Amino acid sequence: MAIIGATQFLERIQFFNGERLFAPDLQALESFNREMRWLHNMSLHQAGVGSGFSVTGNVGDRQVLITPGYALDSKGEEIILTQQMTLPIPSVADNGSGGSVFYDLTVSYPQDSDLKASETRVGICNCPVDGVVKLREEPVFCWVRLNDNPSNRQPVDARLKALIQSGMFLVLAQIEVFNCQLRQPVSTAQRRDARPPKSPYIASGIAKSQDLNWTPWGGPNTTVNALGFTVGFPYRATVITASVNFQSNPTYIARLVGSRVDNTNPPSLLTDGIINIPQSGVQPYSFQIEVFPVIATLGDAAAAPPKAPAPTWDVAWLGIEG
């Protein structure tokens, strides 16, 4: 597009009372608005079908039905069909070896020279030349012949293949033709959406123990049971996730990172924690984590473990949004 060329600049069109306007002045205004819209489309969307442009045809049909639609090519140009239309399929018997012939149906943006005039006017002062003031917007459809390789069907014409790969020709459907009619229903699996499905946004991080303010929030220690372990009262901390810029509440997964065995004073102790992430504490920028400390003796099941300590681990987390 002209406005994003390396040597181009952008101008805002201005008018004043009494100014004498010529056709190029108004054409420049129309061109400015159109190219700004194309720049928006190209920057924020991908080439593909935005809505409509469904293509249908059944076995034995000699034409396909195309519904009104809106699509964008790789330059951001709008491809618009306003009325339902039928399109004859290529009239071929076979591929020369008794097999079917495959085609992709493509659609592309029309140039002014491709469009029909829908309104003309006579200029003032008995100007002998009529001027076109409206062109009927209609897309350009093209049947693209494919090769006979069933595992990798590609356009036979290298130029058309390049136009499809570059996003200037958009594939709407694929057909199989035999004896001048459809051998299979129309396939639309080849089309691409201008609005790709939103993929999940996944981010992760680790909160260091020194940054976690573990605070008890109620509940007594349980009694030591026959297996020789103690479950301590729960602790709660807030894990900050603002650095990854979630836009909505994600699903968080967390685990404790650090040593589980304390050999400093016999008997050896095994410490761990049971994790809970309450949904009420989930935010795009943080989440609350609750840990129930567990402590048990190693090698001496009869020995009663001491009171379960406060958590001292780091917290590794994973957030999934969307």
Architecture overview:
- It is a single chain.
- The protein is mostly beta strands and 322 residues long.
- The protein folds into two domains: 152 residues, no CATH class; 121 residues, Immunoglobulin-like.
- The strands form six sheets. Strands 14, 15, 16, 18, 19 and 20 form a six-stranded antiparallel β-sheet that branches.
- A hairpin with a 2-residue loop joins strand 11 and strand 12.
- The protein starts with 22 loop residues before the first helix and ends with a strand.
Please sum up the structure shown:
The chain is mainly beta and 322 residues long. Helix content is 9%, strand content 36%. It has two helices and 21 strands.
Tell me the number of structural domains. 2
Listing every helix as H and every strand as E from the N terminus to the C terminus, the arrangement reads HEEEEEEEEEEHEEEEEEEEEEE
Radius of gyration: 34 Å
Quickly count the helices.
2
The helical percent reads: under 10%
Please state roughly what percent of the residues sit in beta strands, choosing from under 5%, 5-15%, 15-25%, 25-35%, 35-45% or over 45%.
35-45%
Q: What's the shape?
A: elongated
Structural class: mainly beta
Can you give the mean pLDDT? 82
Question: Count the strands?
Answer: 21
Instruction: Let me know the largest β-sheet.
Output: 6 strands, antiparallel
Q: What separation lies between the terminal Cα atoms?
A: 34 Å
Give the uncertain stretches in residue-range form: none
